[in-house]
Amino acid sequence: MVKVSPLVISIVLASLAALAPFAIDTYLPAFPAMATDFHCTNLQLQQSLTAYLLPYAIMTLWHGALSDAIGRLAAIRWGLGVFAFASIGCAFAPNIETLWFFRALQGASGGAGNVVARAMVRDLFEGVQAQKVMAQVQMLFGLAPAIAPIFGGWLLGIHWQAIFVFLCVYAVVTLLAAQLLLPEPVTSDKRVPLSAKQVISGYTQAFSDAEFVRLVMAVGANFAGFFVYVLAAPVFLIEHLKLNSHQFGYMFIPTVCGMIFGSYLARHSAGKFPPHKVIRFAYGWMICAVLLNIAICLWVTVSVIANILPIALYNIGMALAVPILSLAGLDRMPKLRGTASSGQAFVQMMFSTVSAGLVIPLVWHSPLGLALGMLGYLLIGWMCVRKSLVWNK
Q1: The pTM is what?
Q2: Angle at alpha carbon of residue 85, lines to 95 and 81, rounded to 5°
Q3: Which pLDDT belongs to residue 88?
Q4: Which CATH number fits domain 6-181+195-392: 1.20.1250.20, 1.10.8.100, 3.30.930.10, 3.65.10.20?
């Protein structure tokens, strides 16, 4: 069924999925420069993240259904084409309001790559192989949050506008790679007619399944525990850790290395250990990392190493759990995997949207506040997953 090697497919799918973190993380180092040019506050720039994430979350409900109706590759073409156009709009925005508009357009289109990539893993692979490929995609995808702010820092040396031009080029190159290297798994005889009624019916089916809801909530909450620090990075790194706009790699490199190592463990544990044992180990690891984080915030002087280490450790457990939880969620709807993938992405982005708009401004005033935010999200994920079949098998 698959004519291109699994490694090549994994790289292309990871590149599609990585568009979202690139769109979020690459411009974070530019916040001070953009605030100066737009004559706005950090909070107003923070809301450009909300402007991106909210349409992203809403449109993920349609990307999967659209790919079920017109094919995976056609959905990628439309999504990444609009994203490239919106990126140019961001680059030449004359004020903060225009930036909000084009960031919203980026969000509305940028989720196509992530949603379709998840669905295609399950379209093209089965069983243990699917778990290994999902972990491989997650491992490669995990590089994006580390690379993106470093790229952003370099491009900032030219101008912050160069960051959005780079996002446009990234989208175009990834689109071409998908068209040339990926097979189309949803042939005409497998497509589902697109209609509002059909979409509502699909999501009604998905979100009335308690097991599906528990799994996607767990994935979303686990990721949000780390994403607290991503969204608060300009304040956490510059104000609390006294770093500058070119030193964002101090956080993103070790934390993403943790994510990559966790994905490596997930890939090599596939088929060797029962999923419920892996999940329980992953949550035990994350709980220890969060408690260490809180203890450091309470009793250790603020420092780059001490305050970033627990985040990297947390990401090992998070990445170890993701492939099992994601695939189990997709398997709840074998005939509507695009819809199931959209549901997963929607829940994950809603957690991120709520964090960007409401939670982060409440907790970013101190490292302890951010650590407690991470704890809160982890508890939500644990309460969901402990009732799931994956936990109790």
Answers
A1: 0.73
A2: 155
A3: 95
A4: 1.20.1250.20
